[in-house]
């Protein structure tokens, strides 16, 4: 794919919205008209999601005017007067609305909604926003959405389509039906919105805005923050963060669960930071339970009303465990791989990473205590289910595309939904892609590869000779490619690395390398790349990757048993048996280049004699070409070489084509050696297909077929032998490592 990419490549949800189209939208809205955006925040949790968007809007004053409305628990002293953190972030608060009716039952929540509905119309009449941004599923947000909808103000709803427990589900879906535009965090949420008949063109799969901050936060100085909240004697991974809220549909049971949690934490005897619960029916009773058990004065506990989000990120990122029923535990904390114990039913239905252990019900503290013993101190892979760190740029671009001249009345896409999905899904989803790395003997290549096997963008550099320089260049190229992925509409699902040598794919470690790649043994590739990009990483041998590329994109698609042979600088390959790649007990399967076809053949780089690679590899052909050249037997009529030109296998092939009988004899011997190796493979694995890949494949295919006809058992002679039609099997195979795994998990 020739760089730079054509200008028609846009983010998928803007496929029909080119820069010219955006300009037209601006002109329709009025050349000098800025989009007036009202962001209303109700509590500390929703502000952590809205703040990144607010910063983005504030940074583009040529396009937007921002009005901030603060209400709900932000203005309550018992919950830390968290409106102050909005002021500390240098946002001007246009209006403060005291909307919480104090009480301990469900009626107080209803009265709070009613009070907000009484106060909001006056504020919205004065502000006259073009659009209101509403987050989540709290009762305060329902009042905001109801007011805006009835006053004909467009609503952008953040985090719609998700599923959880309690009354929050109903509130979230009610806001969805009132909202005109939707920003969702996961593919499942996006599919739920479509199933709820929302207009496909008004749904943006952006990821969670808080992940934009989370994924860049962990490297900051954190020890001072830990010491400030938990004490000077606390170490990383040796404390717990607890955050538990009442479940409004079953208050008594949630209070009992909270009591058991505190009992378990007391018994577990680790330093614990306990945050006060949300403003919900039952919150006061939970606070009474804390005080009854002496949590505020217990030497192992620190009980606080509020922790600023930036500091909270550092606390959970370096905790030994987080426990409770907050959505933060199943969503944001996964970005750091911190272990989480999710209690009760409040988050039932949420998508979670492998770091989350669920305790659905508990009659005694023992079950919770056992969960703490299982989870505390573990470290899990970083999870990016809810975002990739690029949500805000997508949301801002989405806001700029809104045409205020379009009718305000919502449109619903009623069933049949399935037909509409097949037509329109590519217009609202970004291209799911992989970052593919090919570590060759000469070049280091990184590419963005789409789910369909298209190489969207490719970067190539000479492969450094030393370990340190090579790893530094890999990280630099991967970071650059990941940043560019946003501009070319690609959502990176993970990183796949193809490298020569013997690889332990389970651990992501290169055990032993080929002589072509120096200083490349016992190298952990997964950890540094994953840490730098916050993405899952897969590593495998280049021959195995070539087989995976054929299985997903090439001749091997749908074939149960096949073998791929790479004919290039060396000889390698991969074996697929019953649709699965074979690695072997010591990860040495499919070293097909080292099948011995002659006991007294030429010496191989592996130290043995008579290997296929010693006859048929590019290095072997180059060796024979140099011998002929030294004896003045290589060049024939029609050939010429410059003095400084290095003799290569290509010269041998050219000479053979021009009638050089000695060169032709060498190629026939090489083809015969490769053919004998293939016969051995047929008699061992009995595949239905052999795929020859690499630069020499087309020169060997006929010779291999001839040897099979002469030497193979009749029962295997029917095997198909074909030349690969893949332009870049190494990169496509590295991408397949990612795409095969992630599509299995998603679907």
Automatic annotation (TrEMBL):
Binding site residues for an N-acyl-D-mannosamine: 502, 514, 542, 591, 594, 613
Main location: cytoplasm
A GO cellular component entry from the record: cytosol
Domain UDP-N-acetylglucosamine 2-epimerase residue range list: 63-400
Pathway of action: Amino-sugar metabolism; N-acetylneuraminate biosynthesis
InterPro entries in UniProt: ATPase_NBD, ROK, UDP-GlcNAc_Epase, UDP_GlcNAc_Epimerase_2_dom
GO BP terms: UDP-N-acetylglucosamine metabolic process
EC number: 2.7.1.60, 3.2.1.183
Coiled-coil region(s): none
Reactions performed catalytically: UDP-N-acetyl-alpha-D-glucosamine + H2O = aldehydo-N-acetyl-D-mannosamine + UDP + H(+); an N-acyl-D-mannosamine + ATP = an N-acyl-D-mannosamine 6-phosphate + ADP + H(+)
Domain of life of the native organism: Eukaryota
Residues engaged in binding Zn(2+): 594, 604, 606, 611
Active site location: 542
Keywords: Allosteric enzyme, ATP-binding, Cytoplasm, Hydrolase, Kinase, Metal-binding, Multifunctional enzyme, Nucleotide-binding, Phosphoprotein, Transferase, Zinc
Entries under Pfam families matching the protein: Epimerase_2, ROK
Entry similarity comment: In the C-terminal section; belongs to the ROK (NagC/XylR) family. In the N-terminal section; belongs to the UDP-N-acetylglucosamine 2-epimerase family.
UniProt cross-references to PANTHER family, sorted A to Z: BIFUNCTIONAL UDP-N-ACETYLGLUCOSAMINE 2-EPIMERASE_N-ACETYLMANNOSAMINE KINASE, ROK (REPRESSOR, ORF, KINASE) FAMILY
Complex and partners: Homodimer. Homotetramer. Homohexamer. The hexameric form exhibits both enzyme activities, whereas the dimeric form only catalyzes the phosphorylation of N-acyl-D-mannosamine.
Protein name, as recorded: Bifunctional UDP-N-acetylglucosamine 2-epimerase/N-acetylmannosamine kinase
Species for this entry: Aptenodytes patagonicus (King penguin)
Gene: GNE
